[in-house]
Amino acid sequence: xxxxxAASECAPFSKTGGLADVIASLPKALASKKHQLTVIxxxxxxxxxxxxxxxxxxxxxxxxxxxxxxxxxxxxxxxEGVLYYFIDNEYYFNRSRLYGEYDDAERYAFFTHAFFxxxxxxxxxxxxIHCHDWQTGLIPLYIKAGVYQHPIKTVFTIHNLKxxxxxxxxxxxxxxxxxxxxxxxxxxxxALNFMKAALVHADWVTxxxxxxxxxxLQPYYGEGLDPFLMERITSFNGIVNGIDExxxxxxxxxxxxxxxxxxxAGKKExxxxxxxxxxxxxxxxxxxxxxxxxxxxxxxxxxLTHILDELLSTETMQLIIMGTGDSEFEEAFQWIANxxxxxxxxxxxxxxxxxxxxxxxxxxxxxPSRFEPCGLGQLIALRYxxxxxxxxxxxxxxxxxxxxxxxxxxxxxxxANYNAYDFLHTIRYAIHLYYQPIHWNRILKNVYKTKLNWExxxxxxxxxxxxxxxxxxxxxxxYVHNRRESKSVTKREAHxxxx
Length: 499
Ligand code: GLC
Hints:
The chain is α/β, with parallel strands linked by helices and 499 residues long.
């Protein structure tokens, strides 16, 4: 299959969250299954200079955003069987932030128009266009509206339903090349909602774990979009993310002080080094917990702030928290770190290399999220043989099985209710088992054998693509007939109507 992915971020070019890791690794996994993979991305300022110098200029053309005629350059880059095209426009993408700018609607409307122009100019005729998150939500709508001449099948993946791309309705007139009949498919509660547009118009919708797919059908997790997902019930599923085991590999990771693999002694050496560096009490036997996260409410941090004092004053343990975010959490963690200097550290930055070393040094990884579409932290923790303690939600529930001391199954610890004391008791239970070699060794064995790579999930995406391609397409119902040409348009004749 010829698959084109559209996304706004992809590691190592640009990253604000887990989306970037998925776009970095899923296309490679599919390419290794002999599909043709192209990824189209904005050329953000954040691309490391050593990669920028390797980009190949392909062509340039004008892209219209209503009356605005904008320059668009295309740069290409190839890596591990995947072809990347970067959409270049300094005005829109040479910014310090990927999102949160006053003109995000215009920037991603431009990206949408440029995406289709790129397909036309480079004569790419995909079987499937796979879009990710709200920044690419207009693409399925433009295809269904007949703005692009080929009725290519689209798949849309929700990485986090909370971020929807909500803009004033005036944007419709000012920026989008759509007939007013399409306003309804884009509008929600008196505003435009790019995510809704995708949920309504994509041929198939996926999200990043089966449990999250179930959860977001209900109002509690649905972020106001659950009614539209309910309507998609027969063309909507959850596929859990994998991780790139070559990037996350404790036996070859250059960040890790002492490489190890299924060797607890090696891991403890990393713990000792981190304890020395961070001026914590040096002892290989004290259980070390880490939390590495964006410091926002949805990550379940209120549960942690609620119990930290009680936990650290009663248990022999060490806790290292790393991340940046809301000041209420930054202040609370700094306060607690000051109060317990021998056992708690707060590292108020995000540093990729140090994060890898903390995964390597720790015995436990905390992730008490209120909701979690998939979560990558717990997968990375498993890879670095750190035992996850999670709340049973979304992908955390799908990837972590709580340890059962009676049958010896389980690769971590978990609790169900969003309740601080349930979290506290789970941590205490985990510490209790940490000191019992019979149980601890079993848990570690289960951690070692957890499958984390993309193999299984990539085949699930193949199934989705196959389904979509064989789906009966009722043109009458699905497409607005404003395509100008007959069905036999060739690649070369495929012009955009958006000019
Ligand atoms: C988002 C979600 C996270 C998920 C990631 C990749 O960042 O919040 O749970 O793992 O996307 O799909």
